[in-house]
Amino acid sequence: MPPRPPLTCLTQPNLPPDLPQTSLPQTSLSQTSSSTIRQSQSSPFSNPLEVSRWILFSMGIRIRVHHADRLPSSPFLMIANHRSFLDAPLLMAAAQRPVHFACHHYMSQVPVMRDVVGALGCFPLDQPQKRGRDFFRRATDFLRSQSSIGVFPEGTGPMVDITAPNEVGPFHRGFAHLALRYQSMAADPSVKDLKIVPTAIVALEEKQQDTVPFQLLSWFDPSEPLFRQSGRHPAVVYRRVTVVVGKPVAVSDWLPQVYGGKQAGTMANELSNHCHAQVQALLKAGCF
């Protein structure tokens, strides 16, 4: 396994014009009211948001959220960089509402883990041969029921081969196809204008540790090639982390024509590249 990257992001790149450091509104999980904390402790599994708060509070993770006011009041599709098993509860706590995140198939197969992802309201993807159709169906059902969803477009790669805190890997385009396909059904009264919310998770202080053997995970999910290696699955555990919410991207602006046919791939690629650039800019801006 290659050497692991630095644990802390210490550089401070130039902030983009629309994200000056001095104008970043800051909130912290430590500022949550004592009544909310007591409620989380007394009934930690009452709903996904409370589960998220309870996990983060119990681990003593210090969190700051920038630009939470950018989150739409209507259901949205949140995307973010992904290096830790804590990313879904972290983003849910930052959004202050339940967000249903797509997660890897094996998480629904491993005891205890499947209970945790279920309590978080995540929806595990199906096996590879059914994964695409299952993802679109379940994600669309959530959006039609006025629930927000979340996707990590980098996939599981950065969690196995951990990247540096200030890096974003290539995006898979599934989230873009989902957004365009959903928005193209606007004639359906249950379909609302969808916005994608690019978000950056900035690890300021973290630790990395080895967890379960890859071979054990491969036993639960033989279809995952990343598990066909020796050693143990690494895990990133945040100590101090910042969440930077980007400006919502209106999917209708990226749908100038009917979605489908040969142009569907081009449209999804352009939307995916735009969102990737947004997450990368937010990550660099928040990495100080």
From TrEMBL:
Q: Where is the composition biased (Low complexity)?
A: 20-46
* MF annotations from Gene Ontology: 1-acylglycerol-3-phosphate O-acyltransferase activity
- InterPro entries per the record? Plipid/glycerol_acylTrfase
Keywords per UniProt: Acyltransferase, Transferase
For the region Disordered, give the residue spans.
1-46
**Coiled-coil positions:** none
Keyword Acyltransferase set for record = yes
The record places domain Phospholipid/glycerol acyltransferase at 76-204
Q: Name one GO biological process term.
A: phosphatidic acid biosynthetic process
Query: Which PANTHER family does the entry mention?
Result: 1-ACYL-SN-GLYCEROL-3-PHOSPHATE ACYLTRANSFERASE (PTHR10434), PHOSPHOLIPID_GLYCEROL ACYLTRANSFERASE DOMAIN-CONTAINING PROTEIN (PTHR10434:SF66)
Give the protein name, as stated in the record: 1-acyl-sn-glycerol-3-phosphate acyltransferase
- Provide the organism lineage as a comma list: Bacteria, Bacillati, Cyanobacteriota, Cyanophyceae, Leptolyngbyales
